[in-house]
Amino acid sequence: MRSLNLDQLQTLQEVIALGSFSAAAQKLRLTQPAVSLQVRELEKRFGVRLVQRFGKRAYATAAGEELLRYAGRLIAEAGHATMAMRRHREGHLGHARLGTSVAVCTYLLPPVLTELRRAHPVIELTISLGTTEYVVERILDNELDIGIVTMPVKRHPALAVEPLREDPMMAFFPGGERRLPRAADPHYLAGRNLILSHRQSQTYRIIARWFEAKGIELRPIMELANTEAIKTLVAAGIGVGILPLERKQGILVYGKTQVRPLEPALIRELSIVRRREKHPEPALGIVLDALQALSTRTGAQPARSDAGG
After folding, report:
1. 107, 246 contact by CB (below 8 A)
2. In angstroms, how far is CA 106 from the centroid of its own chain?
3. CA dihedral (155, 157, 159, 161) positive or negative
4. Which parts of the chain are beta strand (E)?
5. Rounded to an integer, what distance in angstroms lies between the CA atom of residue 17 and that of residue 198?
6. Burial category of 247 from C-beta neighbours within 10 Å (exposed 0-12, middle 13-18, buried 19 and up)
7. Which one, out of 9, 63, 192, 196, has a CA that is 20 to 30 A from the CA of 272?
8. What is the reported pLDDT for 93?
9. Mean pLDDT value across residues 230-247
10. Looking at per-residue confidence, does 251 or 125 come out higher?
């Protein structure tokens, strides 16, 4: 069966709405025979009568009324599609899909998104939150366009990986605690109640490797998926956290925290990942440029795909 002709459906709409073939022809700027032909072709296609006359006025049959309900939705969706493609053509609309972690979205993205919204209010941005593996997998499946992830990322020939920023990992202690060391090493922290990111996260893994380098097995008392929850529990005196220092610390729900550097130093590296061969839509290019405001690196870095696993 041939595809439905939207012009024929629109003609049927106008005939019934105006109650007249001639009035429909005038509105559609067609001849009356052309209007009558389109309606007859629809009736022939479905094998049912769609229009009936009472006096001089045209009315829809029961079949015609039901077809018009579908026709209205089809014509409306076609109109939306046409408008969307026109906006793409004219450069007024773009849609980018970004994936990252809760911590990055909470602490790093707000000023970037504020400026992006101010400069490009018509760009549509969808943000999905998850682990590095989740974000990379969705990029490879073309469900996301771009990701900000914690390194390392496993090598993949389809991935381009561009270093973005480095943040020092710090030990977070309750604000009221005294006699803290000037720097916290793995042996000192192994004797504390540790509250860490959940073990599926890259943050947990790089912390675990930091301990393992000194021959210590990591045994936290709690694992949470929310950075702010970790800081709140630390402030309440429940334990000690190890987190990247992304902003100045403020008052939390249960008080304050204080931080100490790690010894040896531990760095959380963030990179931008995307599909190497993906054509850069205008919106995606604008978002990529905006994300460079997060960079702590000097000079532009080329995209790469040889990050270690």
Report:
1. yes
2. 14
3. positive
4. 51-54, 57-60, 94-100, 123-129, 146-150, 159-174, 194-197, 222-224, 240-244, 257-261, 267-275
5. 61
6. exposed
7. 196
8. 53
9. 91
10. 125
